[in-house]
Amino acid sequence: AEVDVVVASISEALLVKGRSNMLLQADVLLSSIPVDRVFDCVVVPGGPGTKLLRESPIVLSIVKRHVEAGKKVACICAAPTVLKEAGVLPTNYTAHQSVAEALPNILAEKCVVDGNIITSRGAGTAIEFGLKIVYELIGKDKADHVAAAIHFSA
């Protein structure tokens, strides 16, 4: 979609081991990002590691600051629990069913946009989630172009 992306690690290592031992090379340590830096969009990943994100004061501060600044914040799978912990959970949202006890009002939609917050259900809705982020940041034409380029049809 021709956007600049910064992948940040909440640990003290740039190489992060995720679910199923998948390795991800981060660009920067989250702790090295200036506290006043504002991005067009912050994307919070889901999965079991979401617990670590909810427990990170830096993550909670970044999420809250971006929501309050009117910037996009996108959360998938269990990550909407980070929105709740940061005190910025919107009225309308979706999330993975595994967090239904913590988030009892999950909508059964693949993706939900409420103001500047985008939420999605999980791995099975990841393509729609990514395209929704492109749509919200850049517009319909670019989202349609990306969808066509990856042979995606809803």
UniProtKB/TrEMBL annotation:
Residues 2-134 form the DJ-1/PfpI domain. This is DJ-1/PfpI domain-containing protein. PANTHER family: PARKINSON DISEASE PROTEIN 7 HOMOLOG, PROTEIN/NUCLEIC ACID DEGLYCASE DJ-1-RELATED. One of its GO terms (cellular component) is cytoplasm. It comes from Cryptomonas curvata. It holds the Pfam family DJ-1_PfpI. SUPFAM superfamilies: Class I glutamine amidotransferase-like (SSF52317). It comes from the Eukaryota.
